[in-house]
């Protein structure tokens, strides 16, 4: 019996302490087929067939003006990307990885001899009602909003980030 308890205890300590309660994707007919971000007005829209499904107030990087050029500049990139990964265990509740840097971003950074950076996400953890830019270059919304976005945005969704 002691061996059995030890085996159960060993299994229990190897499991993660918490399992994410990430919502399931909505049916395909309800999912967004594009995302538009407007940095200057701090807005993000989810679209389906050219029509706005949802709109959100967003927070950006601490240096929101201009295109991200290198690691650590705290800018949010501008241009055309895709949602490359869905992280249900993000330290910012849930997150969707933006495919920055693209080929052009990497080439420009290489020419300048700098690291283009990466890990640009759409994620939660913005306090409701906040108007402050606080990320290192990501696009942030509230936890309730990222749960809704998570349901509506599959991997591969194109995202255009406008100045």
Automatic annotation (TrEMBL):
Keyword Transferase (UniProt): yes
Q: What is any Pfam family matched here?
A: YkuD
Q: Which InterPro entries match?
A: LD_TPept_cat_dom (IPR005490), Transpep_catalytic_dom (IPR038063)
Gene3D superfamilies, alphabetized: L,D-transpeptidase catalytic domain-like
Q: Where is this region: Disordered?
A: 111-134
Signal sequence extent: 1-21
Active site residues according to the UniProt entry: 123, 138
Q: Which UniProt keywords apply?
A: Cell shape, Cell wall biogenesis/degradation, Peptidoglycan synthesis, Signal, Transferase
User: Which residue ranges does the record assign to the L,D-TPase catalytic domain?
Assistant: 33-162
**Pathways per UniProt:** Cell wall biogenesis; peptidoglycan biosynthesis
Annotated PANTHER family: L,D-TRANSPEPTIDASE YAFK-RELATED, LD-TRANSPEPTIDASE
Q: Which family does it belong to?
A: Belongs to the YkuD family.
**Name used for this protein in its record:** Murein L,D-transpeptidase YafK
Organism for this UniProt entry: Pseudoxanthomonas sacheonensis
